[in-house]
Amino acid sequence: MTEAADTQRRTARGPLVYRQSVATRVTHWVWAICLFFLLLSGLQIFNAHPALYIGQQSGFEFDNALLEIGAVRSGGELRGQTRIFGTSFDTTGMLGASGQADKPQLTAFPGAVTIPSYRDLGTGRVVHFFFGWVFLATMLAWFVASLVQGHLRRDIIPRGADLKAAPLDAVDHVRFRLHHNRSYGPLQKITYFVVLFVLFPLIVLTGLTMSPGLNASWPWLLDLFGGRQTARTIHFGTMVLLVLFFVVHIGMVIAAGPLNELRSMITGWYRISPANPKLEGDKP
Ligand code: HEM
Fold first, then answer.
1. Which terminal residue of the chain has fewer beta carbons within 10 Å of its beta carbon, N or C?
2. 192 CA: nearest ligand 1 atom
3. For the chain, which domains are there?
């Protein structure tokens, strides 16, 4: 290809294609809203007992905490302290003690990131369980619609070729050479597959494992996750992974062209790169 033709290919606008179905778009925004409320109400619930354990037991007489967030008095003032695997970190201002130095707020996570913003476990639980059920219903609706419409087979479940192409796609991502095709690229497929088929089910199942009602009817959940305390720790860890996914996801939306990306998740229409069978061809 001559230099002029190459420049023309890169600057020309490709066609608009219909990329996201109504079901994909509606479920995406419903679970984005649900996860926002679930995260903030979950941090309120965590604040009621800001420690995580591995094993069946928890309490003062046991020494099996992986994470503890609290406040300690040091030099006449209250400092926030986070202990992870036995190592303590000063987290004043963020975790354990936040707000004004003369009148610190002594909660694990500050009121700015909890729902409600003041200590209220009851309301936090009502909000958490409401959005938890909406989230589960949305996941099931997404699964059925994606199966019926072929979205699962075409865009989500990675094939052998996607796994092979993933390392090169990773190099392209590092160099910000992002492709705009009708279908998701190998890394997108793998990431969305992990989010939708590993992280989402894991956070729902570990949540259900903490419900005393469900312990009675589905005791196998307790065996599967090693008890309620371990399930709580996995639930929290999965939340951290989803927050990390969210940060990278938003970063990639911005890097890939936020207007085009957002248009596709709002209207369904996406502008793909000008046709180039070798690099950017449409792979239905
Ligand atoms: C907790 C919040 C979020 C989660 C868990 C999430 C997860 C996902 C998943 C799993 C997909 C693939 C869906 C499918 O194809 O069926 C997707 C696609 C997408 N999401 Fe999100 N999302 C979140 C928030 C957002 C936000 C806030 C934005 C916009 C700023 C956004 C923009 C997009 C776009 C544009 C796509 C289209 C696919 C692409 O081009 O990569 N998402 N998201």
1. C
2. 10
3. 3-48+118-271 (1.20.950.20), 51-108 (no CATH)
Global model pTM greater than 0.85: yes
For residue 36, what are its two tokens?
Answer: 């926002």
**Residues 84, 240 contacting (CB under 8 angstroms):** no
CB 35 less than 6 A from any atom of ligand 1: yes
| 130's tokens | 């409401």
Q: How far apart are CA 143 and CA 1, in angstroms?
A: 43
pLDDT digits (tens, 9 = 90+) for 83-139: 999 899 999 999 999 988 778 899 999 999 999 999 999 999 999 999 999 999 999
Q: Which residue's CA is minimally distant from atom 39 of ligand 1?
A: 261
Distance 28 CA to ligand 1 centre (A): 6
Comparing CA positions, the residue from 99, 113, 96 lying closest to residue 50 is 96
Q: Residue 15: name the closest of 219, 281, 226 by CA.
A: 281
Rounded distance from Cα 250 to ligand 1 centre (Å) = 8
Beta bridge partners of 105: 98
